[in-house]
Amino acid sequence: MGAKILLIEDEEKLARFVELELNYEGYQVTKAFDGRQGLELVETGDFDLVLLDIMLPELSGMEVLRRIRRRSSIPVIMLTARDSVEDKVAGLDLGADDYLTKPFAIEELLARIRTALRKKSILAEPSVLSASRVRLDVARRIVTVDDVPVELTKREFDLLHCLLKNKGIVMSRDALMDHVWDYDFCGESNTVDVYIRFLRSKIDEAFNIKLIHTVRGVGYVIKDE
Ligand code: CA
Question: For residue 128, which of 17, 21, 57, 70 sits 20 to 30 Å off, Cα-Cα?
Fold first, then answer.
């Protein structure tokens, strides 16, 4: 499924054109025609990127950007009719990721979108996750406790990765099953518990840490000690 893009642009013809082009590239597009509606959608929706016109009715694009940045680091590409250095600097100062002057070639917009999304996906996943004395290097697939390497199987690693990524959030057995095992996996219902036991013996018990907590009737959670 393509990335979800929110397009905040009051020129309906331009918005429609951009929407069609983005749809053609596989993106899902939601349109807003003024700043206030756009901001509401950012706050309630689940978008991967915002295309934000500067000259908007209700709330200006700059004001929308300022309010988005109070609570979200979603990539924002500003669109403007004016090729003004002040606008560009102001937008970037407020935390816009990129800036495009109208009229723009659609290929250029697509390239900027790809760049912004790529940057987001790199930033989204930190390369090292940690809790208490445990460190998990995502790319190198190495787990250490106090710098001592811990040998884990692929499943054990994936399960620990999933729990660490959601540190502080209680993960149900079903959620862990979905994330770590394939959807069509038809294992025993206690598979997750079995692997939690493996992890505990290799980490909690071996290093005397209370890493993986059981939440009775719900699932498991990793908390910092
Ligand atoms: Ca406008």
Answer: 70
